[in-house]
Design goal:
Blueprint: H1 8-14, H2 18-24, H3 40-47, H4 51-60
Length: 70
């Protein structure tokens, strides 16, 4: 189960589809060299994304379309 203490790289290794959810929030963690060390809670703080919202979207998949340009 996805939790706030999971690292970004562990999440992506287990569930590559999670990249879309992160990118929808303009989180550039997908190709980041720090991804093996940063937890989902930490990247939420960096990007200003509510942690519970991100976890919910990751757990259930996201129907949110990317907004605007990257």
């Amino acid at each position: 189960m996805i939790n706030a203490h999971e690292t970004v790289s562990a999440l992506l290794a287990r569930d590559p589809q999670a990249a879309r959810v992160l990118l929808n929030h303009r989180m550039h963690c997908v190709g980041c060299a720090i991804a093996p060390f940063e937890t989902l809670a930490e990247v939420c703080l960096v990007y200003g994304v509510p942690l519970e919202q991100l976890l919910e979207e990751l757990r259930h998949g996201s129907s949110i379309e990317p907004s605007g340009e990257l």
